[in-house]
Amino acid sequence: MLKNIIFDLDGTLLPQNIDEFIEKYFYTLTKKIVSLGYDSDKFIKGIKIGTDAMLNNDGYETNECVFWEAFEKVTGYKKDLISDYFIDYYNNEFNELANSVIPYKGLNEVLYKLKGKGYQLILATNPLFPKIATENRIKWANIDSLVFTHITTYENSYYSKPNIKYYQEIFTDFNIDPSESLMVGNDMSDDFVVTELGCDIYIVTDHLINKDNLKLPEKSSNMEELIKYLKKLI
């Protein structure tokens, strides 16, 4: 019996090309920090190595901790002195990246109806961003974050996709039985790996990522068809 529905954000609930987004994100964040007197090459290197540290996190500290440890080591820039600039960026320039997003109509309404029917909804977005950035991106999708029981961010996660332990952490923390769960994502690597734990999968194809050209699962479609599928659960 299906009790839990776990959603990815990038390219799934949020219709945005992830490569284009990351490129604009790096550019606008670096532009802001450099304008404050920081070295661009050193800063970019720190961001990339910090991100790699989160992707390879083995669970000994949160993604937030491993990011800043790696960033400080590479750049010499201390979190206490620079983090406020990051927060200011996420509150301002970052939201300009939403200009190209056209939210899916009716999606938020369907999610609330699912919640009202007793399904537990979790947003399992790769936890490489702080809470403030993730919540802003949820707004870009015209979704109310309160519909989710849990949202993964770099503050509360010890692993990242596609590490199977990322999903195991969610199932353990919320006492979730994978066999009673459905993962909805768009990435045949980052999201499909959850099936190894016995979780069902639904792949959204609007912004499909399938680098190895793997066969899509039986449950796969564009977002329009997914919404119809979710309505049948209500």
Summarize the structure in words.
The protein is an alpha/beta fold. The chain folds into 2 domains: 4-16 and 103-233, Rossmann fold, CATH 3.40.50; 19-98. Helix content is 43%, strand content 9%. A 6-stranded parallel β-sheet has the order 3-2-1-4-5-6. Strand 2, helix 6 and strand 3 form a beta-alpha-beta unit. The chain is globular and about 55 Å long. 33% of the residues are buried. The mean pLDDT is 96.
What level of helicity do the residues show?
A: 40-55%
The major β-sheet equals:
6 strands, parallel
CATH superfamily of the largest domain: HAD superfamily/HAD-like
Helix vs. strand class = alpha/beta
Question: What is the CA-based Rg, rounded?
Answer: 18 Å
Compressed to H and E, one letter per element, the order equals EHHHHHEHEHEEEH
The CA-CA distance between the termini, in Å, is 14 Å
What is the topology, as strand order, of the major beta sheet?
3-2-1-4-5-6
* CATH architecture type of the largest domain: 3-Layer(aba) Sandwich
> In percent, how much strand structure appears in the residues?
5-15%
What shape does the CA trace take?
globular
Record field, number of beta strands: 6
List the domain count as a whole number. Answer: 2
Q: In CATH's first tier, which class of the largest domain applies?
A: Alpha Beta
Mean pLDDT: 96
- The CATH topology of the largest domain comes to Rossmann fold
Low confidence ranges: none
Number of helices: 8
Keywords:
single chain; 234 residues; alpha/beta; Rossmann fold; 2 domains; 6-stranded parallel sheet; 8 helices
